């Protein structure tokens, strides 16, 4: 497994170094090379984690499952508060939520075994896929967000 991760990292670095024009943030400032490489790495790792832990309900393409499970693609709920999303992934959620004007009331199971970096990778992947564009959710930020989760509300 360690060799796979090392190989994957080398591949990511190689692919991103063959570059096109530099990516830019929402305010049109260039993203530094290190952040761009980290974003690519988080996207690759996050996709795998998403497929393992999330796609069964939210679907591989992030469209959700009818009125049972909400979409992540183009989701106003997701993009409104990534801090809460990190908490939902870790602690789960019961009760009603509204996503893009539609109410959903299925329990989301907790993933208490996921580490802060794994949650950061999932949040980065879902917040930068299917029309969403939020940039990287850094592990240090997600670690802080998880410390501040209000588990009583989840």
From TrEMBL:
Gene3D superfamilies: Cytochrome c-like domain. SUPFAM superfamilies: Cytochrome c. Keywords: Heme, Iron, Metal-binding, Signal. It holds the Pfam family Cytochrom_C. Residues 41-130 form the Cytochrome c domain. Residues 1-26 form the signal peptide. PANTHER family: ALCOHOL DEHYDROGENASE CYTOCHROME C SUBUNIT, BLL4482 PROTEIN-RELATED. This is C-type cytochrome. It comes from Marinoscillum luteum.
């Amino acid at each position: 497994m360690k060799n796979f991760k090392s190989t994957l990292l080398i591949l990511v670095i190689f692919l991103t170094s063959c570059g096109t024009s530099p990516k830019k943030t929402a305010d049109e400032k260039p993203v530094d090379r290190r952040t761009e490489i980290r974003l690519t790495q988080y996207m690759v790792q996050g996709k795998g984690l998403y497929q393992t832990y999330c796609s069964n309900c939210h679907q591989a393409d992030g469209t959700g499952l009818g009125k049972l499970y909400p979409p992540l693609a183009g989701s106003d709920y997701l993009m409104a508060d990534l801090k809460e999303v990190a908490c939902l992934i870790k602690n789960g959620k019961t009760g009603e939520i509204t996503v893009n004007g539609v109410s959903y009331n299925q329990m989301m199971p907790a993933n208490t075994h996921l580490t802060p970096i794994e949650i950061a990778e999932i949040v980065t992947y879902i917040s930068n896929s299917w029309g969403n564009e939020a940039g990287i959710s850094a592990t240090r930020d997600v670690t802080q967000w998880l410390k501040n989760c209000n588990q009583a509300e989840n």
